[in-house]
Design brief:
The protein folds into 2 domains: about 5-170, P-loop containing nucleotide triphosphate hydrolases (Rossmann fold, 3-Layer(aba) Sandwich), CATH 3.40.50.300; about 190-295, K homology (KH) domain (GMP Synthetase, Chain A, domain 3, 2-Layer Sandwich), CATH 3.30.300.20. It is of the alpha/beta class and about 300 residues long. The protein has helices at about 20-30, 75-90, 105-115, 135-145, 160-170, 190-205, 240-245, 250-270, 290-295; strands at about 5-15, 45-50, 55-60, 90-95, 120-125, 150-155, 215-225, 225-235, 270-280. A 6-stranded mixed beta sheet has the order 2-3-1-4-5-6, with helices on both faces. The two termini are about 30 Å apart. It is built from 9 helices and 9 strands. The structure holds guanosine-5'-diphosphate (GDP) and magnesium ion. Magnesium ion binds near residues 21, 22 and 42. The site of magnesium ion has 6 residues, from helix 1.
């Protein structure tokens, strides 16, 4: 095979919640596609981020973090999205936090061992350790846990060492023509990204419980004369959560709405008008029909 042969494949981003999978996806693609936050379990869907270079097309698959507690159907849906990904991809990037190896990381590694897929261990957030020499013993400790194809320390937030990661990924992909148009950065629609952007802004402004019990549904997404009109419903589980999401004199909802509007204007390069309503639908987290109608259906490539 000629050395210049084009490569293309699917790369699963796998790891426990909060290690920086979505941050890395956005970095690799150069656009905000997948929402991120300090709260675990921010990502609920499987999302593709596509990065095409002269020599390869990398199709990154962001997944919800694998977690052990399956409290309701939503949690099971999230685990399933992560687990099917492990089976379907050409290569796995197993992400962990620099300096930390937890029982949850061990659980994830168990799944990866059974999958038999090639795995690159990505040690993220190296920007956090002030003393870089302390990283070396950690790297050699975790390197011994499995036959990793490579072990690469990075900072997804700062962008450190991502060229090394990109080169390693490219080498390991199968020779194949591209699947997607080189211009395309995700498989998701702007409608989906709009819902996720709103959910991210709300999640970041809320305390512990409510973020996990809300979802956003786009009722109307219309582009007219270069302007985008978006009407969205924020669904919560209980009546008292409505007030929490709306905030005093509507302040929280207004703030989240304005942040999402700015972000969406940035992404689309168009003027956006966003209208938000908060409504109660109790039991949606554990109801198959509600989950489906709100977009939490099993997706396949
Ligand atoms: N210091 C630091 N923080 C990071 C880095 N990458 C991600 N984070 C933060 O870690 C948190 C979780 O990130 P996210 O991408 O949502 O994690 P995910 O749950 O694995 O998708 C967010 O607050 C990110 O800003 C990094 O390289 N360095
Ligand atoms: Mg995520």
């Amino acid at each position: 095979m000629a050395e210049s042969a084009f490569r293309c494949g699917y790369i699963g981003l796998v790891g426990r919640p909060n290690v920086g999978k979505s941050t890395l996806l956005n970095r690799m693609v150069g656009q905000k596609i997948s929402i991120t936050s300090r709260k675990p379990q921010t990502t609920r869907h499987r999302i593709l981020g596509i990065h095409t270079t002269d020599s390869a097309q990398m199709i990154f698959v962001d997944t919800p973090g694998l977690h052990r507690a399956e409290k309701n159907r939503m949690n099971r849906y999230m685990n399933r999205a992560a687990l099917t990904t492990i089976q379907d991809v050409d290569l796995i990037l197993f992400m962990i936090d620099a300096g930390k190896w937890t029982a949850e990381d061990e659980t994830v590694l168990d799944y990866l061992r059974r999958s038999g897929r090639p795995v690159i261990l990505v040690i993220n957030k190296v920007d956090r350790s002030r003393d870089k020499s302390q990283l070396l013993p950690f790297i050699s400790e975790v390197s011994g846990k499995y036959e990793f194809a490579e072990v690469i320390p990075i900072s997804a937030r700062k962008g450190d060492n991502l060229d090394t990661l990109e080169a390693a990924v490219t080498r390991m992909l199968p020779v194949s023509p591209p699947v997607y148009d080189p211009e395309q950065v995700t498989d998701r629609s702007m409608r989906f990204i709009a819902a996720e952007s709103i959910r991210e802004k709300l999640m970041r402004g809320l305390g512990q419980e409510v973020p996990y019990q809300l979802t956003v549904e786009i009722e109307r997404y219309r582009e007219e004369n270069g302007r985008i009109q978006i009407n969205a419903v924020v669904w919560v589980e209980r009546e008292n959560q409505k007030g929490i999401v709306i905030g005093r004199q509507g302040s929280r909802l207004k703030e989240a709405g304005s942040q999402a509007r700015k972000e969406l204007e940035n992404i689309t390069g168009k003027k956006v008008n966003l209208e938000l309503w908060v409504k109660v639908r109790s039991g949606w987290l554990d109801d198959e029909r509600s989950l489906r109608s709100l977009g939490y259906a099993d997706d396949e490539f």
